[in-house]
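Researcher: Re-running this chain for the archive, since the previous output was lost when a drive failed. Same request as before.
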Amino acid sequence: MTRANNHIVIIGGGHNGLVCAAYLAKAGKQVTVLEAAEQVGGLAVTQEFAPGFNVSAGAHLLFMLDKNIRKELRLDSAGLSFSQQDMSTTALAEDGNHLLIAGDSLQGADISNNDQVAMKEYQRFMKRFAGIFNRLNNRTPPRIGSKNRHDLLSLAKTALQVRLLGKNDMREFLRIAGINIYDVLQENFESPLLKGALSLDGVLGTNLGPRSNNSMFCALHRFSGMQGMSVPRGGMGSVSKALANVATNKGVTIRTSATVSRILMEGDRVSGVELQDGEKIPAVTVVSSADPKTTFLGLLGARHMEAGFTRKISNIRMRGNTAKLHLALDGLPEFNGLEQTQLGDRLLIAPDMEYVERAFNHAKYGERSSKPVAEITIPSLHDDSLAAPGKHVLSAIVQYAPYQLKAGWPAEKATFTDQIIDLLAKYAPGIHSQIIHKELLTPVDIEREFRISGGHWHHGELAIDQFLMLRPVPHCAQYASPVNGLFLCGAGSHPGGGVMGSAGRNAANAILASQRL
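Model: Regenerated structure tokens:
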């Protein structure tokens, strides 16, 4: 098989793969995207889970999409629109005395003046510290131990940004960046309900509890792209459709139901890919938006890599701990103490930090939480495309649900589903009678359906030892792999998970730079 002179194949049509394809095509490259599923999007997809009911299958809130990508690719002109923007957060209380969080403003739950003042300061320093992360998100990470001028300048620029925080903020940033969010919230706030809600920012989608180191780091990562939480009209799949529209308009060929079975080699470099049906597609460059373990251990094969690199890839921590519940409802649920207009908010079940930590304790021992935490949305309240008139969809991210469940998910899935619904019923007492259909995606289901090793939403834990020049592993942190012609562009690369697109654009820039050498 002869390698194509200018052809680039991208494995996976998730949002990062589509962003990468659009930027490469914009630079004049011939690009083909191969997606195993029937539609593009990966976890950022809208699916019908019951007749007439559609839901964002994975991520259900958009708040990290890079504003420059949105502008440069003109996504709004390509079909991206919103049914709701700048959503508030409501921390639910069983007694109906809920807490409304709108930016740095707090209402309800008998919140104290001290917490009102503390919240403004907390938002100030979180946004300021997260700004450092934000600037790192859109740069190729510097290499460790490199004497390359570009790498040294990048390190110096990061150090300067930290120094420019000023003496007091710099010290505080260095103090809290790697510690647990529990201690930081304890230092700043009085309200248990407020602390429980804020602690979720450090643990959603992770194998962490509020008392775990790196939970503050994860909160800063979430804040790094924070532009106000939004619900795309038509669900998260509309983001991916807009990206696909841009890519195809720039000349990208997108093939769905095209499962890549292996990456082909010719000598010491990649030469293309082979599909499950035996078709071989030549390419000078192969870019994978799949997770690192799938890419290197599944599609490439350990025989093409050094033993040390293979071991590092095998040791990436990426076992999912998050489930997704979808409910098709016969009507709009009534939550105690909430007006109908408030049901469009982001709703949280995390009564206090001790509750969240106890929920996490089960996961340490391979057990599902007996009293889980949840992030809930009812997107159909503002988007009639998701359900028929009078019907509604409830979507909830639920923790903790470990990938390696000791009792096994086949035996526990139905029980856990009912347990979550019973939890919801404490706040919305009539919800049982409104359920037409229910679906729970465990990490095992996510692995199978979305082809993500371990069912981890972020293609690997986000932690200091799996971040920046260490993500996914050293010698593979600048999107180029040790294998000639093979690049990564997915969430397993810097800057990590979240529907932001930065990994895709950064990878495209790295590929274009390598081809100019």
